[in-house]
């Protein structure tokens, strides 16, 4: 194949830095030290060699169930060098979820930390299949260890085509079973050029630090592929992200780009020592996964004096394609389309809606995935020619900024009228005692759909639920008020950290069955 028909993102994001003479630059910043690009490339070769000796071949799937660290990065790029397809797994997810992925993906083997051996074994048992393991570190039993396999030295990356499968990314919906989007080498190269280089401007001297872990596509880009594409460095740590963990790494690594989500922005601001933290090294923070409330943005700016670039991306397009950018942030919006992507707002019949009206978001660009693995019906529904129909409801203003309204499949019909949960969630979130809110619809005993809300609060008092109902009724049409409001310690999350609306709907059904509807 010609050079233009060859693209392997292991070369594009890693080995090319060594070929450019930048092998001595720091690639990874860890709690225990640093690794250069040359050292990371050698580690990727080590994994590629091991996988080759285990007979992994091009286009076969390889599970990566690893904590953030050198092994994750080496295994990811080593798998890509062979032309195989990494399937990144949350190593802390429930065993039933892992078993479903094992059955669904039919991977050749799994690369795991010792801590994930039991999880992988139990998941394979539940899936009634065998799953060979390659263990990084000491392993009991009969599993193969990385150190048991020979190292063959430098490995030349397979000359994959730009449209060959590169990675599987699981869709981040809030309901139902997640499906894998088969993404190509072209997609990762395209978004890196359009978003990381063009829109937000990653630089060689950047240091990135992320709240989401690398198995989440948002972090795979912002905290690995994007910094590696320019010879910058990524700070990694294996433990769960907490405000304390982040403040400690910010003090140690002095990142210039902080990759975060609204829930962590809230948690960092609520930390008792927030005002004493020094975030002066951070050029900007990114936010994705859910809309960032304007009040939360303004509070962050007032506390840390750092811009937050809220944006929207999907697994179907791999990463962010609508975003605020440095020096041009409009709070409460997702920003404008990233150059290189086309975005339209359409109605249910596929016609563009007028400016200011709500519609479904359609996007086109060279980061479009191939489709959903083993789900042609859903593929036909979402992938329509060059367009991807995301299912997100948005509104475009006169200046071209997009405002997130909600998910189309989350909309609730109450008394014959449509209710978008994000609107009610925003009103609840504006109450001074509320830290987060989720609104879902569920049937009452008569089978009628009613809205219910679940909130986390700063201080719980006996009359707060009734006060919050009145707070909504005073600000929205009466039919939109939640018939029940429940104060919870925390909201359940999906494998990608989004609120699990399926769990919330079941809880709402239970509450509605025992609650008399209040009169507005």
Say what the CATH topology of the domain at 1-161 is. Rossmann fold
**What Rg is obtained from the alpha carbons, in whole angstroms?**
23 Å
CATH class term of the domain at 1-161 = Alpha Beta
In percent, how helical is the residue content?
25-40%
In percent terms, what proportion of residues is strand?
15-25%
Number of strands: 27
Main sheet properties: 9 strands, mixed
Count of helical stretches: 14
Shape: globular
Strand sequence of the main sheet, in spatial order?
A: 2-1-11-10-12-13-14-15-16
Unreliable stretches covering 5 or more consecutive residues: none
Please tell me the overall pLDDT. Answer: 92
Structural class: alpha/beta
Describe this structure in words.
The chain is an alpha/beta fold and 520 residues long. Among the domains are: 1-161, 3-Layer(aba) Sandwich (Rossmann fold); 411-512, ANL, C-terminal domain (GMP Synthetase, Chain A, domain 3, 2-Layer Sandwich). The chain is built from 14 helices and 27 strands. The strands form 6 sheets. Strands 2-1-11-10-12-13-14-15-16 form a 9-stranded mixed β-sheet, with helices on both faces. A hairpin with a 5-residue loop joins strand 25 and strand 26 (449-457). Helix 1 runs parallel beside helix 7 and helix 9 (262-270) crosses helix 10. The longest helix has 17 residues, at 37-53. The N and C termini lie far apart (69 Å). 50% of the residues are buried.
């Amino acid at each position: 194949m010609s050079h233009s028909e060859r693209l392997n993102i292991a070369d594009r994001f890693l080995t090319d830095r060594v070929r450019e003479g930048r092998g001595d630059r720091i690639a990874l910043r860890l709690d225990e030290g640093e690794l250069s690009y040359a050292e990371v490339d050698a580690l990727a070769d080590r994994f590629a060699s091991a996988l080759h000796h285990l007979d992994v071949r091009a286009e076969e799937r390889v599970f990566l169930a690893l904590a953030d660290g050198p092994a994750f990065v080496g295994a990811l790029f080593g798998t890509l060098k062979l032309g195989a397809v990494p399937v990144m797994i949350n190593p802390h997810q429930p065993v039933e979820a892992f078993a479903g992925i094992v059955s669904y993906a039919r991977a050749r083997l799994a690369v795991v930390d010792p801590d994930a051996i039991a999880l992988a074994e139990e998941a394979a048992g539940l899936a009634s299949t065998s799953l060979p393991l390659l263990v990084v570190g000491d392993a009991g039993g009969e599993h193969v260890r990385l150190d048991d396999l020979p190292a063959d030295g430098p490995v030349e990356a397979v000359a994959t085509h730009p449209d060959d499968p590169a990675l599987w990314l699981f869709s981040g919906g809030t309901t139902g079973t997640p499906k894998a989007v088969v993404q190509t080498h072209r997609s990762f190269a395209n978004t890196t050029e359009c978003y990381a280089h063009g829109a937000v401007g990653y630089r060689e001297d950047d240091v990135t630090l992320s709240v989401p872990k690398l198995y989440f596509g948002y972090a795979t880009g912002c905290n690995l592929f994007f910094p590696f594409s320019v010879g910058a460095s990524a700070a990694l740590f294996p433990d769960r992200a907490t405000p304390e963990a982040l403040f400690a790494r910010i003090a140690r690594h002095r990142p210039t780009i902080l990759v975060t989500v609204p829930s962590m922005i809230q948690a960092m601001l609520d930390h008792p020592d927030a005002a004493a933290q020094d975030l002066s090294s951070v050029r900007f923070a990114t936010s994705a996964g859910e809309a960032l409330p304007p009040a939360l943005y303004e509070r962050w700016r007032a506390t840390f004096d750092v811009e937050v670039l809220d944006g929207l991306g999907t697994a179907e397009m791999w990463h962010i394609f609508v975003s605020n950018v440095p020096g041009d942030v409009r709070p409460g919006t997702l920003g404008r389309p990233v150059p290189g992507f086309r975005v339209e707002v359409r109605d249910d019949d596929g016609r563009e809606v007028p400016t200011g009206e709500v519609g479904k978001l359609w996007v086109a660009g060279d980061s479009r995935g191939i489709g959903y693995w083993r789900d042609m019906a859903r593929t036909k529904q979402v992938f329509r020619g060059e367009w991807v129909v995301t299912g997100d409801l948005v509104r475009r203003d006169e200046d071209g900024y997009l405002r997130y309204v909600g998910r189309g499949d989350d909309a609730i019909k109450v008394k014959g009228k449509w209710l978008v949960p994000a609107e009610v969630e925003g009103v609840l979130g504006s109450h001074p005692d509320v830290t987060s809110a989720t609104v879902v619809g569920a049937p009452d005993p008569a089978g009628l759909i009613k809205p219910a809300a679940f909130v986390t609060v700063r201080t719980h008092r006996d009359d707060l639920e009734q006060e919050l109902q009145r707070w909504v009724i005073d600000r929205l049409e009466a039919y939109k008020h939640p018939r029940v409001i429940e104060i919870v310690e925390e909201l359940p999350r999906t494998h990608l950290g989004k609120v699990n609306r399926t769990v919330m709907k079941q809880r709402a059904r239970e509450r509605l069955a025992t609650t008399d509807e209040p009169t507005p």
